[in-house]
Write a structure and sequence with these properties.
The chain has 355 residues and is an alpha/beta fold. It contains 10 helices and 14 strands. 37% of the residues lie in helices and 16% in strands.
Length: 355
């Protein structure tokens, strides 16, 4: 018996693809949405879709058309922009979703320094459209991707959803903070249950080519030097994708109901009297960048040539997630250590690229 009908946006993306597989395998009915933009190699996105039985033409001929999976009878996919109000509204009208998980976004901190418009279009206008159609078409709950980058200049660690996040250092981070504010407004005004997930450096098989693990693995195998920012003193709360997906599924299944004890005189930014919640979703175990690189070197059996460089604009030196809320409320417990996760990624990488 099918459980819920769920719209997953960003379904050709790294987290979205893995989430779709997990939900399909347990029996949910899924409609995936993605615009398959060229922020990174689209062949990887088409490859992920193919893994779930979705055959999409590489030209624009499939744009806006519902494509049925050849592998999962309860999966359909559509190529759309979230900014396309009319097409998105028709999708909501026709499909009558129970729940929505919005993972579609223009990603990347450094890209936002040179391409700010992309973040406003996708992350602000697109997200507003999602909120509007969730409201008007009786969606029971919305979960959505925020980011650990919202912590910005905040130096108190581990990062907590009770901390102030009013000092972002990239437009990407600002757009994600805006999503949280927009979601709260809809939770307050219209009773739409919304849950924001602040992801912390997700990695694993089928990962993004613009992320460190992919970049480092490729360069080391090709004998090319790697850029090591902040002279290797960066720390990241690397979180394996299966652990992330487990947390997202728990959030989808347990929409917030609002906290009756919430006090506007001492307001907790991570919750509300409205059905609104923000969770950190990470590993709670920061890893120094040089140790991360060493684990890659050990798995590959090859040393990296390192260009030691200063901290880049828009980057934060360290991330560390306090996930106690997600653990207490929903039983979230990441279980994959970095060495295991890196090993699985490299096994996938060698297989996928026949190396």
């Amino acid at each position: 018996m099918l459980k819920n009908k769920i719209l997953v946006t960003g379904a050709a993306g790294f987290i979205g693809f893995n989430l779709v597989k997990k939900l399909l395998e347990r029996g949910d009915e899924i409609v995936g949405l993605d615009n398959i933009n060229d922020y990174y190699d689209v062949n990887l996105k088409f490859g992920r879709l193919a893994e779930t039985g979705i055959s999409v033409s590489h030209d624009d001929s499939s744009w806006g058309k519902i494509i049925k999976s050849e592998k999962y009878p309860n999966y359909k996919f559509v190529r759309l922009n979230l900014e396309d109000k009319n097409a998105l509204e028709k999708l909501f009208q026709d499909e009558k979703f129970d729940k929505v998980c919005n993972l579609a976004a223009q990603a990347g901190v450094r890209y936002s320094l040179t391409n700010p418009d992309a973040y406003i279009n996708s992350n602000i206008i697109g997200f507003l459209n999602i909120l509007e159609y969730c409201r008007h078409y009786n969606v029971k709950a919305l979960s959505y991707a925020s980011s650990s980058s919202v912590y910005g200049l905040n130096e108190t660690q581990p990062f907590s959803t009770s901390h102030n996040v009013d000092h972002p250092v990239s437009l990407y981070a600002a757009s994600k903070k805006s999503n949280e504010l927009m979601a709260h407004t809809y939770s307050h005004l219209f009773g739409l249950p919304t849950t924001g997930l602040r992801f912390f450096t997700v990695y694993g098989p089928w990962g993004r080519p613009d992320m460190a693990l992919f970049i480092f693995t490729k360069a080391i195998l090709e004998g090319k030097p790697i850029d090591v920012f902040n002279y290797g003193e960066m720390k990241r709360d690397f979180t394996y994708v299966d652990d992330i997906v487990d947390g997202v599924v728990r959030v989808i299944d347990n929409p917030p109901i609002g906290d009756a004890a919430w006090d506007g005189k001492t307001p907790d930014p991570g919750s509300s009297k409205a059905p609104y919640k923000i969770y950190n979703i990470g590993n709670s175990s920061p890893v120094k960048l040089l140790d991360f690189i060493e684990a890659i070197e050990n798995k590959l059996g090859k040393k990296a040539e390192k260009n030691m460089m200063p901290l880049q604009a828009g980057d934060v030196p360290s991330t560390y997630a306090n996930v106690s809320d997600l653990t207490a409320d929903l039983g979230y417990k990441p279980s994959t250590d970095v060495v295991t996760g890196i090993s699985r990624f490299i096994d996938w990488y060698r297989s996928y690229y026949n190396i």
